[in-house]
Design brief:
The protein is of the alpha+beta class. Helices cover 21% and strands 14% of the residues. The mean pLDDT is 90.
Length: 80
């Protein structure tokens, strides 16, 4: 795991890496111009990371709602 985590830090196309619970050990957010570029990243980067024996990829089709930060409600003064 340590070798994998150190290697992930060396690739600029990997934007984020999260250690997960459940069926996947890690989830990566990768930047690619198009599917051809993703194929190159998949072959020359992701599949070469230490300890990788299987991968599953998913692609966003379109954004429905953008994250705008955590909802923080302001305290309302009661005049006391």
């Amino acid at each position: 795991m340590e070798r994998f985590e150190r290697a992930v830090a060396d690739f600029d196309d990997i934007l984020e890496c999260h250690l997960m619970s459940g069926s996947a050990d890690y989830i990566l957010r990768v930047s690619a111009r198009d599917l051809g570029h993703f194929d190159t990243i998949h072959r020359s980067c992701l599949s070469e990371l230490p300890g990788v024996s299987a991968m599953r990829s998913s692609f966003a089709i379109r954004r429905i709602k953008s994250w705008r930060g955590y909802p923080v409600r302001l305290a309302i003064s009661r005049g006391t």
